[in-house]
Amino acid sequence: xxxxxxxxKFLLQGNEAMAEGAIAAGCRFFAxxxxxxxxxxxxxxxxRLPQVDGTFIQMEDEIASLGAVIGAxxxxxxxxxxxxxxxxxxxxxxxxxxCMTEVPCVVVNVMRGGPSTGLPTSPxxxxxxxxxxxxxxxxxxxxxxxxxxxxCFSITVTAFNLSEKYRVPVVMxxxxxxxxxxxTYTIPSADSIEVVDRIIPNVPPEWYKPYEDNSRGVPPMxxxxxxxxxxxxxxxxxxxxFPTEKQDEIxxxxxxxxxxxxxxxxxxxxxxxxxxxxAEIAVxxxxxxxxxxxxxVAMARAHxxxxxxxxxxxxxxxxxxxVVNVMRxCRAVLVPEMNMGQISREVKRVNTxxxxxxxxxxxxxxLITPLEIFEELQKL
Length: 380
Prior knowledge:
Blueprint: H1 2-5, E1 9-13, H2 14-24, E2 29-32, H3 39-51, E3 55-58, H4 62-74, E4 79-83, H5 85-90, H6 92-101, E5 105-111, H7 128-133, E6 142-145, H8 149-166, E7 169-175, H9 176-180, E8 182-186, H10 247-263, H11 265-268, E9 271-274, E10 281-285, H12 287-302, E11 307-312, E12 314-316, H13 320-329, E13 332-337, H14 342-350, E14 356-361, H15 370-379
Parallel strand pairs: 2-3, 2-4, 4-5, 5-7, 6-7, 10-11, 10-13, 13-14
Antiparallel strand pairs: 1-8, 6-12, 9-11
């Protein structure tokens, strides 16, 4: 059945496209708990995974869901879960465990208004900083944001590839607008999709060290049951996986976790630029707001304003170089968000007097429209 989807055009929701992207990337395990506005991902995976010899489990809650995903990944299976704000809050402890144990997995958060129960059926971008810093302690994590149905497919594939390559959880941020938008999309043929698998050990089992350092900072990962010794703990551990309190081993381990992400900055930090070449004013946006920003830039151009757009696909690690280059070029930058200014904080942090940074925020559960962004551009 999997191959029958390839090369065919479908009218898909963003949530449905995410499920198809996950399957195309090799995901064969999904555990989740229903929650608005992410439930369609679970629904589609519930019947699509059995068609490709995968496994779907509806767990008792979001804590158990991510726990099951971690267990499946340790067994060598690409795994994913999907939730929204309240469920994402419950996942933070296990997200930290996945960071500490370097377990590849993809966690989708379809954002809705908050805090608490909030606005279950309304869009928001209020979980951005939680995605980066929600679990305690210094930890590496990759956070990606999607703005269209096509990106829901393609960036989900990217999320799995980065997760497997760097042995790190990847958080994908969508929102109610993207999740429930329907667009025609032709699912690419399997041979046109780059799929990255985790590196497995090439040494005898008795030589294997599951957390041994190397030039990439990413140790090969054996699957449980393949004959390699595993010791897995949420405690800081040595190269064998055993808990350690030795200062040199603690520092080496934690710094390696960050080094592997730093080494991959060029590949991990993804942005899209529109009309930036001659832009005097730039919009920096992500998620569904980037859709509105794209139209707003076209409106501004039609009125003689040289505006451009930088769409952030990668939110963390923050794509500093791309943002700084635009700020050096433009006399003003606008950051519209459906929150009180979470990414604008990052933009302002890297702005060392290069340009004027303005923000536009909306938190009433409604999408920021192209007209709103256009009117803000006229003020700059």
